[in-house]
Design goal:
This protein is mainly beta. The protein is about 0% helix and about 55% strand. The chain has strands at about 5-10, 10-15, 20-25, 25-30, 35, 40-45, 50-55, 55-60, 60-65, 65-75, 75-80, 80-85, 85-90, 90-100, 100-105, 105-110, 110-115, 115-120, 130, 135, 140, 145, 155, 160, 165, 170. Strands 1, 2, 6, 10, 14, 18, 21 and 25 form an eight-stranded parallel beta sheet that branches. It has a six-stranded parallel beta sheet with strand order 4-8-12-16-19-23, with no helix packed on it.
Length: about 170
Amino acid sequence: LEGLGNAIIGVTTYNTVDNNITIALLAEVGSHGPVSALNIDNVSMTAPEDRVASLAALNFGLILHCSATGTMSNGDAGGLVVYNEGTILKSRAAVNMSLGTGGGLVDHNDGVISLSRASGSGFSGGLAGSSEGLISDSYALGDVGGYQAGGLVGYNSGTIQRSFASGNALI
């Protein structure tokens, strides 16, 4: 999917029932189809106990030069992606979270995040809620809080190279 730098504006979801589902614009980015140069602006997502992301629920492929802005509440969220097992390159998210957990860019990373950034607040991890993959040359700006709060990553058992975070940890 080539976004050509265009934006999808005003994506709104509001789920009041705890369905334990994942909500995103795309269900999955497959290993053979990259998503590039697509912006999701002014997203508003509310979902109790559900997993939410502005762009993709699952990434097994390549997300390149994509971005998201907006707000999320009451879920386990990633600003751009819920679960990353592929590669996220040169992408960014400026999403604020209230009453939830997750990461400013991704909720869980098992893949590669490189040359990317997040600048929201309220997540448990500034860039990733948790990571067992590789994070390199990336950063997070903004306050984090909640269980396992970490400026860059809430919980990490992967590799982090040349990356940083700036903001407060609010417990």
